[in-house]
Amino acid sequence: MAVGLQAQNLETPAVDHKPAQLQLTRLDDKVALISAAFPSEQKRSKALTFSFGKTLVSLVDDGSQGDVRAGDGIFSAKIEFDFDAFAKSNAQLLDKNAAEKSPVFAPGNRQQLGIQHLAIGADSARLITINGNKEQSFVLPFDASLIRIDQTIELPLVSLPMGIPLDTAPVSRSVSVPRSLMITDVSVVNDPSRTWACNGTNTSPVGNPTGDWTFWRLMENIANGTSSTSDYIKRLFRHWANNQVVNGFNVAARPLVYQEVIRNWEIRSGGVGADLLPDKSPFRLLGIVLRADLRGGTGPYAGGDAGEGRFVFALHDGNCNNRSKTIILEYKVPITGCTNIRDWARKWIDLASSANYNQDLNSLTQVFAAAGANPFGPNQSAIGQVRTNELLPGSPHWEMREFVLPDSGGNLIETTVKQEPHIGFNNSATLANYLNLNWPSLVGPPSGQHIVPDEFPVPGSPFLAGSSPVVGMWSAPSGALTIPTSPAPVTPPPATIRDDALFEFALNTCSGCHLMETSTPFAHLDYNSIPGMPAFLSGFLTGISIPDPRNPAVMRHFNDLARRAADLSVAANMSCSRVVAPGNLVLQQLTSPAVLRAVH
């Protein structure tokens, strides 16, 4: 057994460590030295352990196993390695289809850091990355015989899994954003057999009021016989009619929401208190969204599901005049296992060229949206959460809420909004304390790996918010912060660790992502988009550069749909082979996309 490999009869979840720098050194024909820099772990750990099924592999920073200097933040292991597999994976990964310029994103992050491009040679490829004013060049061989004994290879960290060749034929790395990821074309959202659609303002909706992509049918599927669809929808919106207590915090009633949605729907259906009729529904489809980037991981030992599929609806007045509210149905795709997830990603890429596009899209959405899609879930539904974004006339401010099914099933219930403390903690010593304790997870790499807990700083002290009102800017008292102000390991200068900690925290809140941190006017798919036209998308999705709200000298760059497209290509071309040397598994784990903890 190779040095550095510790085999134990355990099943533990993979730890999603991602390095700031990565080197591979050939020691002999079957052993490599893998050295990875983890700056945030320098003072916290002497070993980082990775789980592959029942096998644990450790990289150490204690001066042993090829580690040059103890405690310097560089973790190393001498480990069995298949150099032929490494070279073959390079050739597959860096094919001519990937040779165009493409954006580079921070691991686990929504930030675009720079661009990359390839120069393909006969026996190697040169990958060039440009991050700010820093340019790096990486030479990746296609032939293992070209790697000399004691030669060290610098490896790129651009969320491209390396080390394990594909165990199936690769598919095109080109992903159509409008036909595979963010589907807003009028031919889909106004499909006459599947939607109840608006072709213009001051008109009645047309189409099929109980079609597969209507709000009515999807809510009926979530209820799955637990009550009538009319009652199920009424109970959901009744949460706005009265004050709610969520995680110990009062969420004030917004009775105009119930009036605008339910009472007016009842009146159109026959009178106050009447059963709701599907052909009087005030919701129109804005888009169908694939979020494969929210899957549990990448590679043969990745856990979790295949990410999410989402339906985004906008509210109107019954006559196709917009009202300022969206509701998003977010489903957990009930698919697990590397090959199944890879096949799922490939189907969405192939969808773009389908001659029967809407029919094939419907088949894919039925996987997660049909009644009984998840036989093991509450109501046998695959719904993960329902989120709303609302600023109706008369409402005091913009607000986001979240709803889930209880484990026992039945009606949707209001729950906390994720990754956002209660607004009362903004600019507080408590928030500073949270940031001081969690900045390594916030800053990374990978960044944004924190989880805002229900309670903090002690059990019984509610922290996570019950709703998300608009916040001017998330921050904390500078005098209470102990986060280092040295250069950030991810964002280019002049960003500091403190800048990135505050930014990552704020960006991952509901209110930050929908306002200050991304320069978004509340909704990433605009609820005021003109009926009969594709929904207007935010700059965060399509590409925008803005100054950091707290330190304008630092520019933040976003292009989230391009990030999701690159990630879908990775999922569709990931290797699922487990018959490989442990060093290759480690290399793939270190170079694969980080699990995205963000919820937006």
Notes on the protein architecture:
- It is a single chain.
- This protein is α+β, with helices and mostly antiparallel strands and 600 residues long.
- The chain is built from 14 helices and 25 strands.
- The protein has helices at 83-93, 177-181, 186-189, 215-223, 229-237, 255-268, 338-351, 357-369, 429-443, 497-507, 510-513, 539-542, 560-572, 582-591, and strands at residues 5-7, 21-26, 31-37, 47-52, 55-60, 74-80, 102-105, 112-120, 124-131, 134-141, 152-154, 182-183, 196-197, 206-207, 244-246, 249-251, 283-291, 308-316, 322-332, 383-390, 399-404, 413-415, 468-469, 544-547, 555-558.
- The strands form seven sheets. Strands 12, 17, 18, 19, 20, 21, 22 and 23 form an eight-stranded antiparallel β-sheet that branches. A four-stranded antiparallel β-sheet has the order 6-3-2-11, covered by helices on one side.
- A hairpin with an 8-residue loop joins strand 21 (399-404) and strand 22.
- Helix 7 (338-351) packs across helix 13 and helix 9 packs across helix 10 (497-507).
- The protein starts with a strand and ends in a 9-residue tail after the last helix.
- Residues 1-15 have low confidence and may be disordered.
